[in-house]
Design brief:
The protein is of the alpha+beta class and about 90 residues long. It has one domain: 3-Layer(aba) Sandwich (Trna Endonuclease, Chain: A, domain 1). Helix content is about 35%, strand content about 20%. The chain has 3 helices and 4 strands. The chain has a 4-stranded mixed beta sheet, covered by helices on one side. Strand 2 and strand 3 form a beta hairpin. Helix 1 packs parallel to helix 3. The longest helix has 14 residues. The relative contact order is 0.22.
Length: about 90
C-alpha cells in the first residue's frame, strides 16, 4: 500500500458523487500496482471497479495490464458517474 497515493484532480468529486447517489464506495487509490481507484456498489448489488481519470488522462503502464484482465470502468466526470448509476438502476429493475 502506498503512503501517499497519486490521485486525479477529480477523484474526490467523483467518489463523492457515487456516495451522494447512495452507492457505497471503497477507495482503493492507495493499493497501487495498477489497481483501479474505486470499488463501487451500484444498484442491483453490482460491484464495479472504477478508474478515475481526468478528461485527458491516460492509463499508466501498470494500469494497462490490470485493465486487460479485470473489468474496469473509466469515469472522467461526475456526469459519467451519475450515468453509470442510472444505467445500473434501470437494468436492475
Amino acid at each position: 500500500m502506498r503512503k501517499h497515493p497519486r490521485v486525479d484532480a477529480n477523484h474526490a468529486d467523483i467518489r463523492q458523487a457515487f456516495r451522494d447517489l447512495r452507492c457505497p464506495v471503497l477507495d482503493l487509490a492507495a493499493v497501487g500496482g495498477g489497481c483501479p481507484d474505486l470499488a463501487v456498489l451500484l444498484p442491483g448489488a453490482r460491484v464495479v471497479l472504477v478508474e478515475v481519470k481526468t478528461p485527458d488522462g491516460t492509463l499508466t503502464e501498470a494500469q494497462g495490464p490490470f485493465h486487460a484482465v479485470w473489468p474496469v470502468v473509466v469515469v472522467r466526470s461526475v456526469d459519467e458517474a451519475i450515468r453509470l448509476v442510472q444505467q445500473a438502476a434501470r437494468s436492475s429493475v
